[in-house]
Amino acid sequence: MAIRSALVAKPTPTFSVSELADRIGEQLRAAFPAEIWVRGEIENLTRAPSGHVYFSLADDGGGGGESGMPGQAHLSVMLRAREKERVNRLLTKAGGRVRMTDGTDVRIRGRVDFYPPRGRLQFQMVSIDPAFTLGQLAAARAALVEALRGEGLLARNGALAMPALPLRVAVVTSSGSAAEADVLTELDRSGFRFDYWVADVRVQGNEAPTSIAGAIRWCAPKGFDVIVVARGGGSATDLAAFDDELVARAIAESPVPVLTGVGHEVDRTVADEVAHTSAKTPTAAAQHLVGLVTRARDRADVAFDGIIVAADRALRREAERLDRLAARTSTAAAGATRAEHARIDHLEARLRRAPVGRLERDERALEQARRRLRSATRRTLDDAERAIDVLATRTSAVDPERALARGWSITRDERGTVVRSAADVATGMTIRTTVADGTVTSTVTSCDPDDER
Q1: What's the pLDDT at 49?
Q2: HSE-CB for 391 with a 13 A CA cutoff
Q3: By the 8 A CB rule, do 125 and 231 touch?
Q4: Which 3-state string (H, E, C) describes the chain?
Q5: Of 209, 182, 280, which Cα lies nearest the Cα of 217?
Q6: What is the pLDDT of residues 107-140, one digit of tens each?
Q7: Burial class for 284, CB neighbours closer than 10 Å (0-12, 13-18, 19+)
Q8: Residue 252 class from Cβ within 10 Å (0-12 exposed, 13-18 middle, 19+ buried)?
Q9: Which pLDDT score is estimated for 63?
Q10: Whole-number pLDDT of residue 331
Q11: Buried b (16+ CB within 10 A) or exposed e, 22-48
Q12: How far is CA 200 from the centre of its chain?
């Protein structure tokens, strides 16, 4: 009976590949009859010439293999060209703040399907939830800011002293980008001699945080006065690298002040929160530097004008004292001379009346009087010379020629008035600049007052 049963048992069915694919598709459609929402991180996004978009959706919460350990799960996603228009409309309604790029955490809607030609489970995307992505980004930013505040890193870079004359500048940005052009154009047209160096970095994508943070740490010990981190405008997902913990910590721990100019005026990233100073745009960041240097120059001009005024005042005061001392010296010497001459005349008169016995004594007295006269006159003149030397030394200390010898110069117009501003001259005017070893005469061919003064 056992042999008979084996002979008549129903054989195990054998499926063709197509039949198995159809059966899998039927089971999937039965298990997921309607559209569902799936969340995960975009990886390996590509846009085909056909208009279709392909990417993988991944997360770290999927089940593992035989070991039972958690592992990363991946799901192939296809967004057809006709459905892409609906997705783009939703992204546009969100203000363009979300873009589908690698590394973006998204919540998408679609259908589970099996694609027989590739033997692959595939998710057919039809919609997206931009608010989910923005919420995830905002929550991650808030959590990172609080963590940095708890570690005392949020205000560390801002506590550094900004140099009064920040002319050596490291610019961390994408080489050849609009942000680089905006920063360098502002620095070049300022007229100041900025010494800048550009660190070419990735500013978008999964590699951007490591690239930006590495450049900041490399620049920190190189002797720059300030580090400018710049990136042009974009969506919130485009700027995600500047909300990354690696970048935030590199800025916070930098021993050099960091100035950020990231995105548009409405954008605010974690990098802005930890930077010494944050500007609204790359252009505004460069303008801030130019403003610092302009104010330093203005302070130097005011100080130099004060030196000239003080030197002139001191010279006049010391010259008057010198004149008074010379007059007193001359008067004292004349008085001493008259007194001694009177004494000599008196002695001569007495000699004429004195007996011969006193003649020798009076002659000796007369000789002593002459010696005292010469000694008193010499002492008076020596005292006057020493006083004059002291006054000359003090006068020399405030002499403008010494300031000229240290590299300063004084420019006067045709009337001899000191030129203190570009507005004091006009095209065609002849000006004379006094330097340490002479005078330079120039004709003004152009006059460009600084608008930011």
Answers
A1: 92
A2: 19
A3: no
A4: CHHHHHHHCCCCCCCCHHHHHHHHHHHHHHHCCCCEEEEEEEEEEEECCCCCEEEEEEEEEECCCCCCCCEEEEEEEEECHHHHHHHHHHHHHCCCCCCCCCCCEEEEEEEEEEEHHHCEEEEEEEEECHHHHHHHHHHHHHHHHHHHHHCCCCCCHHHCCCCCCCCEEEEEECCCCHHHHHHHHHHHHCCCCCEEEEEECCCCCCCHHHHHHHHHHHHHHHCCCEEEEEECCCCCCCCHHHHCHHHHHHHHCCCCCEEEEECCCCCCCHHHHHCCEEECCHHHHHHHHHHHHHHHHHHHHHHHHHHHHHHHHHHHHHHHHHHHHHHHHHHHHHHHHHHHHHHHHHHHHHHHHCCHHHHHHHHHHHHHHHHHHHHHHHHHHHHHHHHHHHHHHHHHHCCHHHHHHCCCCEEECCCCCECCCHHHCCCCCEEEEEECCEEEEEECCCCCCCCCC
A5: 209
A6: 889 999 888 887 788 899 998 888 888 887 888 8
A7: middle
A8: buried
A9: 46
A10: 82
A11: eeebeebeeeeeeeeebebbbbebeee
A12: 17
Task: Report residue 32 as tokens.
Answer: 């997921």
* Residue at 152: amino acid letter: G
| Upper half-sphere CA count for residue 296 (Cβ side, 13 Å) | 13
Contact 50, 34 (CB under 8 A): no
Q: What does the alpha-carbon distance between residue 112 and residue 121 come to, in Å, rounded to a whole number?
A: 7
Phi and psi for 45 in degrees, rounded to 5?
Answer: -75, 135
Question: What does the pLDDT read at residue 453?
Answer: 42
SS (H, E, C) 338-377: HHHHHHHHHHHHHHHHCCHHHHHHHHHHHHHHHHHHHHHH
Rounded distance between C-alpha atoms, residue 367 and residue 378, angstroms: 17
Tokens of 208: 């951007």
Q: Which residues of the chain have pLDDT under 50?
A: 1-2, 63-69, 452-453
Give the model's pLDDT for residue 351: 65
Task: Kindly report the number of other CB atoms within 10 A of residue 72's CB atom.
Answer: 13
Edge-to-edge strands, sheet with 226-231? 195-200, 168-173, 226-231, 258-262, 277-279
CA 172 to chain centre: 11
Query: What local confidence, expressed as pLDDT, does residue 193 receive?
Result: 92
The predicted pLDDT at position 64 comes to 45
Helix pair 130-150, 245-252: axis angle to 10 deg: 30
Two tokens at 276?
A: 């010494």
